[in-house]
Amino acid sequence: MPSSPFENLYLKFRSSLGRVLLIADPHIGFEMSRGIRIRTHLEEKLADFINDTGPDLLIILGDLKDPLGMSFTLKRLLMGFFSELGDTEVVVTKGNHDGKIEEIGELFPNVKVVDYFLLDGKLFLHGHTKLPDVEFEEAYLGHIHPTYSIVRGGVSRKAKVFMRAGKFLVLPTINPYIEGFDIREGIRMVPFLRHRKSVELFLPEGVYLGTVSLL
After folding, report:
1. How far apart are CA 109 and CA 82, in angstroms?
2. How many of the other CB atoms lie within 10 Å of CB of 188?
3. pLDDT tens, residue by residue, 123-158
């Protein structure tokens, strides 16, 4: 049986609200923005994956959509995505690509669009703005789609990674068709992390790559 295209590109944990599925940067509708003529049906595959996982709460760390505007076609894709999720509770922490996303979210009583979300001492946000003035024990964000080049046998391969910077954990994009930014480039796009000198990296399958200097 083939593995899921979303395999290991997410986190699952238990909370006071039940089972949580955490994903980042789906970029639904990316085909429209990036000149891809073949429909990938990403939104349908992602909805199927979420339903198979069966969370009580889905948290999306921003950039639910890719086009900056809200065309009729994109609206149809997003409405189809949320409809497929049924009554699963969904929180979207609004990203820089998510303009007018509230127009869709407000049509579904189980969908909440917010700037950030606090749950059990954990802070969830996209990562493109300053930190909110709230107390938290650890934070989860997306935005930069972290990748790292791994050299094996003289061959370099760029891989998606989870990136930890102190109490901040950055998730890779859940979109299997989008690669991402090298960590040294990407971290400069997060206002509260851009001065970090080193980070810890993990491959999606859980392999610890160690501490990597950003200098």
Report:
1. 11
2. 15
3. 999 999 999 999 999 999 999 999 999 887 778 889
Give the CA distances from residue 60 to residues 78, 128, 143, 173, in Å, rounded to whole numbers and listed in that order. 13, 14, 11, 10
Distance CA 11, CA 33 (A): 27
Residue with tokens 């996303």: 101
Distance CA 97, CA 69 (A): 8
Q: Give Rg (Cα) of the chain.
A: 17
* CATH number for position 48: 3.60.21.10
Strands 162-165 and 198-202: antiparallel
The residue segments making up the domain with residue 17 are: 11-213
Q: Are the C-beta atoms of 114 and 95 separated by less than 8 Å?
A: no
What is the SS3 assignment for 13?
strand
User: What is the total count of domains within the chain?
Assistant: 1
Spatial separation of the C-alpha atoms in residues 55 and 161, rounded to whole Å: 23
**Among the residues of the chain, which ranges form H helices?**
30-33, 42-53, 72-84, 102-105, 183-186
Q: Is residue 4 part of a domain?
A: no
pLDDT profile of the chain (215 residues), mean per 10? 81 98 97 78 96 97 95 95 97 97 96 98 98 98 96 85 98 94 95 96 95 93
